[in-house]
Amino acid sequence: MNIYISGSLVTSSAEFRNRAGALTDPTTVTCKYRAGIGSVQNPTPVHDGLGMYHVDIDTTGWSGPDIQTWVTQWQGTGAVVAIEDDWFGVKAPAL
Question: Is the pTM of this model over 0.90?
Answer without folding.
Answer: yes
